Amino acid sequence: MHGMKWVDEQTVLQRADIVQLAAEMKDFLRQGGRERALLPPREVLFQQDPEAIYVSMPAASVDCGLYINKVGSIFPRAAGDSLPTVHACVVAMSARHGRPLALLDGAALTRIKCAAVAAMVTDQCAIADAHTLTICGTGVQAWQQYLAVTAVRPIQTIRVYARRPEAAAAFVAAIRQHTPKPLILQVETDLEQAIAGADVVATATSAESPLGEFARLQPHVHINCMGGHNEQSRELPWSVLQSALVLTEDVPMAIAEAGEVHQQAHPLEALLTIPAQTLQAQRTVFSSIGHAWLDLLATAHVLQRLD
């Protein structure tokens, strides 16, 4: 284990460049790196007492020079419990000589991965002059959507919808503190009002059932659906998924984990073949389920920037 690094949360977040990582993800697809990578199905273990889920997501790529495995645990927490629901770490080893290279904070790596892939998809799918962003949710993933979309589009207005107005107000205050840009920031308590006229909508909640009808979506809206899902439903109603061009990281996995409605979905490689002008002229949804090849790219990105 000589020379193996521990890369903590702060280092992962400080070293990452979301726009650069998004470009690296697109290049990986363009150059056929995903096709050459070893990407077995992830393993999920369910524990009953105490209730928990354990996940293992391996990936290997000679192109990246890496073998990784992201392992995580999900423990439901009672109200007032200060421990995080999710813990994760990523072990990285050389795919050229087998030497262990690093152990990285998995939660931080997931955050930069989600922001980067959302930025990559949004940059192709959202109209070029998108000015209004609606974020549904106020957690860690909602923050990544704020970072991702504002990195690739000239957003002027951000609306934050949450079922608890105080959570939305705190999120808006955090944005105001984070950026010097003169953004119009709005707290919304009505979902339909929040999405009316929005050019980009991001859903990032733990809900595994639709947040609402989403009846007032614009015809050209792009949606990043990043939160809860199961085989029967996710944050968006089936009607929205059925009426839009849907993109996802892996179609068979999306069908298995997020429902048969993904039968007509496109893999992310479609971003290379469908012109941006065509995508931006219609309603698009990035129905994200996560994938180890994105963790692989995020790990490579961080390790390269440590040198």
UniProtKB/TrEMBL annotation:
<dbReference type="InterPro" id="IPR003462">
    <property type="entry name" value="ODC_Mu_crystall"/>
</dbReference>
<dbReference type="Pfam" id="PF02423">
    <property type="entry name" value="OCD_Mu_crystall"/>
</dbReference>
<dbReference type="GO" id="GO:0005737">
    <property type="term" value="C:cytoplasm"/>
</dbReference>
<protein>
    <submittedName>
        <fullName>Ornithine cyclodeaminase family protein</fullName>
    </submittedName>
</protein>
<dbReference type="InterPro" id="IPR036291">
    <property type="entry name" value="NAD(P)-bd_dom_sf"/>
</dbReference>
<dbReference type="InterPro" id="IPR023401">
    <property type="entry name" value="ODC_N"/>
</dbReference>
